[in-house]
Amino acid sequence: MPRKYIAKFKTAERSPSAPHVSHAIYSLLGGLLAISLITLLSHSTATPLLIAPFGATCVLAFGVPDSPLAQPRNIIGGHLIAAVIGLCCFYLMGNTWYSLALGVSISIAVMQMTRTIHPPAGANPLVIILTGAKWNFIFSPILVGSVTLVAIALIFNNLSSKRRYPRYWL
């Protein structure tokens, strides 16, 4: 048994090669534009639209836009689902170790079952519970922020002839 378990750690494949420098620069510009616009929109409207998980969302939306995890339904749906679960856990159990653990783990399972898995959204319950967020957090920053990120990704990623975003909607 231990030998079979240890054998799983041996890798049979090599890591993927680094993307071309032009892809990295384009990804850099996409992330820069998205976070800049959301921050400026947040300041100009005095509405909180930015949370740390959106930085990780930019990694997917601009760094690997072909990934199933980076598609619009995953970004918006994943963030919404995880936020609702995080808020439910917070209001039912408070800021406890088990509300944090259940918030993240239930979010993972529900995102998988709804085909909206989005790893950055897994941090939403932690953000919500640790900050004591209110129910309006679902609208702002979650819904408005994730829709804005997707809109920017749609426009920006399709400016390049080498990119097509999204790969699918549903």
TrEMBL record:
This is CBS-domain-containing membrane protein. Coiled coil: none annotated. Residues 18-166 form the HPP transmembrane region domain. It holds the Pfam family TM_HPP. It comes from the Bacteria. The chain crosses the membrane at residues 21-40, 46-64, 76-94, 137-159. Keywords: Membrane, Transmembrane, Transmembrane helix.
